[in-house]
Structure formats: structure tokens, C-alpha cells
């Protein structure tokens, strides 16, 4: 399936313009009221766009609401895609879902396990060196740039860990209700906290792969044996979308326990 079709080139161009003008940085410096208004418009635009494109090109876009939260057992997410994907509602063919690496085998998982399970200090866990190496390699490093920022981030991660451990895993919408200022301040990945849920892709056989946003939270949820977590879906493999289509049209009982098929259970 072609990726660089005119419709997708247009969507990529819109995303590029937003990056070029540093819209997210400008957006995060505005009031919460302004951010809330804009994110409603953004979600409406993306939802309508995906809906229309699905009608025009059903093999390239999903029928699912691109902002619908589904709930997944953390242990079901065993792998992460090697290349992050930022477009919502796309359906893509090919072997991208096989190009992945294990989460428990990652250095980040090892660092967080040493910190929270083995009770090591952040220095002993290796996380500070790991984050610093990410910066030197030119990686994202969660928008960190200095050692002081890394240490501040460690304090935030401690707070997130104890919040999940003692209060349970909360969605971003729930956290906004509890402490809006802290939730907005900790949003470093997404345009708005509501979009800051763990982001996943779904492979051809329904395998759930971590894509972007919330990798620390996902690992913490694994270490704490959290039952389910809220996630947002970015892309689906074409074969999986065909499965969704089949289940949606018929009474086929194909893995209706899959979280991406939950909406069809009572039909």
C-alpha cells in the first residue's frame, strides 16, 4: 500500500507546518482555557478528516474514532515499534509491525526496575547516565537538555510512581480533575494533556505495540501489575483493519475480547 498518496502528503504537510512554526511550544505557553478550546477544534478537525477519508479511501483510514480511549492490560504490550508514528487513524500495510523491540529488554525498563523494584538511587539505577547519553546522541530525551532538568524529571517520575502505586492508574482526564496545573505542566509529549495517554499501534494479528507517549508510565504499570491502562491508537495494520471491518459487519466472534473490538461486543 502506498504511503505517499496525495491525501497523506497533505496531512504530512499540515503536520510539518505545525512543527516548523513551533506551534506546540506556543500552545503550551497559553492559558488552560485557550488550550482546551484549541484541542476541541483539533479533535473535531482530525475526527472529521479521518471520517471523510475513510469514506473515500476505506483501505487507508480506519472507521474507529481516532480519539477513543481503549483499555489494555499492560502485559499485553510486549513490544515497541522502532520508528514512532504520529498520524491518527491511518491504516498501513507492510511489515512495520514486525520491526519492533522488546520493552522489558530496553535500557529504560532496566533503569526503572532498578529504581523502583530494587530501591536503587537514580544515580545507581543508571537512569541519569542513560538520559544524558540520549541528549548527547541527539535523541528526544523527553525534552531534557541539562543534568538539572534530568534530576527534576527524576523527582516527577517518583511522584508518578507513588501516585500509581497508592491511588491507582488514572487517565489524563481524571488527573486534570484532580490537579490541573500539575497535569498540564507534566505534559511534555502531546499537544494537550487529553492527548497524552500512552500511544499504541495495532499489528496485523491484533498485537498491541507501544508507539509513542507514556513509555515511563507503561513500564511503571507493568512493574506494579496494573490491571488495565487507557491508551490511544495511532495506526492499524491493514490486515487488522480488515478484521475490524469483518467483525463490525457480521456476528463473527473473532477475538471479541480484543480491546479494539470491544465496541462490537453487545451488537
What topology emerges from the helices and strands here?
Elements (H helix, E strand, L loop, with lengths): L5 H15 L2 H6 L3 H25 L13 E3 L6 E3 L8 E3 L7 E3 L4 H10 L5 H4 L1 H10 L10 H21 L4 H7 L1 H6 L12 E5 L5 E5 L2 H9 L5 E9 H12 L18
Parallel strand pairs: 2-6, 3-7, 5-7
Antiparallel strand pairs: 1-7, 2-4, 5-6
Order of helices and strands: HHHEEEEHHHHHHEEHEH
Sheet bearing the most strands, described?
7 strands, mixed
Number of strands: 7
Provide the β-strand percentage band.
5-15%
Q: How large is the count of helical segments?
A: 11
Structural class: alpha/beta
> Any low-confidence stretches, pLDDT <50, length ≥5?
none
Number of domains: 1
Structural description of this entry:
The chain has one domain. The chain has eleven helices and seven strands. The chain has 267 residues and is of the alpha/beta class. Strands 1, 2, 3, 4, 5, 6 and 7 form a seven-stranded mixed β-sheet that branches. Strand 5 (198-202) and strand 6 (208-212) form a beta hairpin.
